[in-house]
Specification:
Helix content: 25-40%
Shape: elongated
Order of helices and strands: HHEEEEEEHEEEHHH
Low-confidence stretches: none
Largest sheet: 5 strands, antiparallel
Strand content: 15-25%
């Protein structure tokens, strides 16, 4: 995993300048955080896939559950039988369709506003389930200090370095130089993501799947 000090060193090398007279440490940290967030928004990074801390399940009460504190995007919800074998996967439907379901409908989920405490939450049918298995993508940790670990592995270091430099040069009005760093960073981003997006191997992840097979592509 990487920290801001690592990115700062890479940025200084690519700028060929370690002076902070023009690009301060705070400017570089903000740009690196922005780049990291954009990558997480666009790509499902394996190192950010998590499960809830309570036995890998989300605790549900009367069909409602709060988001994990670091939740960003869902991979899947499912149930397991007594032999720890997947027995059902929950299907997402829009809130307005979810509202018309009976409490015993199986198996559906949505995200919606909860007026009881003015927050957004998960809602499930049937409402009798109390512990639902969950896999989700967490938010990248904001780097507030030099030693904050953002959660991304070191293979993204050079990419974040290139794109951070691009962001800094754009802010400085040096658009031609910024375009070079942005193009290079994006090309490397696609290459790296292409090498990590199929942890099960190409044959497992690229094969044709039956429409009756209810497994997420991210399983």
């Amino acid at each position: 995993m990487s920290v801001f000090t690592t990115y700062n060193t890479i940025v200084e090398q690519k700028l060929a300048n370690n002076s902070e007279v023009f690009f301060t440490s705070e400017m570089k940290r903000q740009a690196a955080n922005e780049v990291t967030k954009e990558i997480v928004q666009q790509y499902d990074l394996p190192e950010l896939i998590r499960r809830p801390s309570t036995s890998g399940t989300l605790i549900v009460a009367s069909g409602v559950a709060a988001f994990p504190s670091d939740y960003f995007r869902l991979v899947k919800f499912w149930l397991e039988d007594s032999d720890n074998i997947e027995s059902a996967e929950f299907i997402y439907i829009r809130p307005e369709e979810f509202d018309g379901l009976s409490d015993t409908a199986s198996y559906f989920w949505t995200e919606d506003y909860d007026p009881s405490d003015d927050t957004r939450k998960f809602f499930f049918k049937p409402t009798t389930e109390t512990a639902i298995h969950m896999r989700y993508i967490q938010q990248a940790t904001e780097m507030t200090t030099d030693s904050t670990d953002n959660g991304l592995s070191s293979q993204w270091d050079d990419i974040i370095g290139f794109l951070t430099v691009a962001r800094l040069l754009q802010n400085a009005g040096r658009y031609d130089e910024a375009q070079f760093f942005e193009n290079t960073g994006n090309a490397r981003l696609r290459d790296v993501y292409g090498s990590v997006k199929n942890p099960g191997g190409v044959k497992q992840n690229a094969r044709f799947r039956s429409k009756y097979e209810r497994r997420s592509q991210l399983w």
